[in-house]
Write a structure and sequence with these properties.
about 190 residues; alpha+beta; seven-stranded mixed β-sheet; globular
């Protein structure tokens, strides 16, 4: 504890204030809750997704993922963001703690996150809904999306994951299903 305090003050004097975060053990199960609120902080769209693969492995952006149904995590996240009067898009990331199988808050991204295309592929058009809120004043709420769609960020995400992951066996056979009817790809931009 003493060493931690000393290092904190040493680093913060060089780099400015910092936030310390507990290390959450686990096998890298990351859940993203992507939300859209209108100007009155009323929820207009929500999606929970699971990162199947990431680059770097276990801690980076989503390279393959799909929507999941988790109403308790979704509703808790909506309530948290409404309590601070959030407006617009956000992506809230959780890591599942292997000690108690509970999702633990990792970060709040105050923007469209890496899972935005995953939502589009699953039937949730975030950009159009945001456009409607900005231009027309509001949009219809949407809390449903497809959970049977695998979204992949093939180049460079999936490729880099395949090259660098230590567990190559985990790639088989899912990684090689390029033409499955429920597999959609992130756009190149």
């Amino acid at each position: 504890e003493k060493e931690l305090v000393e290092k904190y003050y040493q680093l913060s004097s060089n780099f400015g204030p910092m936030i310390l975060q507990e290390y959450i053990p686990g096998d890298g199960v990351i859940l993203d809750v992507t939300l859209l609120f209108n100007r009155d902080s009323e929820i207009r769209a929500a999606m929970v997704s699971n990162r199947i693969r990431m680059f770097p492995d276990g801690a980076g952006p989503n390279t393959a993922g799909h929507g999941v149904i988790n109403p308790s995590l979704r509703d808790m996240t909506i309530e948290m963001m409404q309590s601070i009067g959030w407006k617009g898009m956000c992506q809230v990331e959780y890591k599942v703690d292997c000690r108690d199988n509970t999702p633990k808050l990792i970060e709040i991204n105050p923007r469209m996150g890496g899972s935005t295309q995953l939502g589009v592929n699953a039937g949730l058009d975030w950009a159009y809904k945001l456009f409607q809120i900005i231009v027309e004043g509001d949009c219809e709420p949407q809390m449903t999306y497809r959970t049977d769609v695998l979204s992949r960020w093939l180049i460079p995400g999936e490729l880099m994951h395949a090259i660098t992951t230590k567990n190559k066996k985990k790639l088989w056979p899912d990684f090689f299903r390029f033409f499955d009817k429920n597999t959609k790809y992130y756009i190149f931009n």
